[in-house]
Design goal:
There is one protein chain. With 142 residues, the chain is an alpha+beta fold. It has one domain: VSR Endonuclease (Endonuclease, Chain A, 3-Layer(aba) Sandwich). The protein has 4 helices and 4 strands. It has a 4-stranded mixed sheet, with helices on both faces. The protein starts with 9 loop residues before the first helix and ends with a helix. 18% of the residues are buried. It comes from Sphaerisporangium rubeum. Its EC number is 3.1.-.-. Belongs to the Vsr family. It is an enzyme of class 3 (hydrolase). This is DNA mismatch endonuclease (Patch repair protein).
């Protein structure tokens, strides 16, 4: 990938630097609902065998990994957008993010984990229903 281009404006640079990597609104909403339902989990849990990668919400005993993906950064098929400036660089960057997500999924599945990816636009209550079902099923199989 080419060298990261300069920001197109100071405003863009300021907005991008404020983007959260963890504890995003959707992630916190899901965590609160999970906690209220009685489930306990780990946050930003490092993935064994993969440097610099972590699971957003990890149920370590049940081996269920939850990722709450932003529509922009992970190229949501419904809401993905591309910046008009530096299009080539951003296209490569976002494609690498998707490839990294797929590699992470495969690594975890090979290690016996169930992987659930939730888009930031999904209803947190429905997402929690999916998670509770997966964790309950995984715990029953242990």
């Amino acid at each position: 990938m080419a060298t990261m281009p300069s920001p197109s404006s100071p405003g863009v640079s300021a907005r991008m630097s404020k983007q959260r990597r963890r504890d995003t609104g959707p992630e916190v909403s899901i965590r609160k609902l999970l906690h209220a339902s009685g489930l306990r989990y780990r946050v930003a849990w490092s993935i064994p065998g993969m440097k610099r990668r972590s699971i957003d919400i990890a149920f370590t005993r049940a081996k269920v990994a939850i990722f709450v993906d932003g529509c922009f950064w992970h190229s949501c098929p419904e809401h993905a957008t591309r910046p008009a400036v530096n299009d080539t660089w951003w296209s490569e960057k976002l494609a690498k993010n998707v490839a990294r997500d797929m590699a992470t999924n495969e690594h975890l599945k090979q290690a016996g984990w169930r992987v659930i990816r939730i888009w930031e636009h999904e209803d947190p209550s429905r997402a929690v229903e999916r998670i509770v079902e997966a964790v309950t099923r995984a715990q029953a199989e242990c």
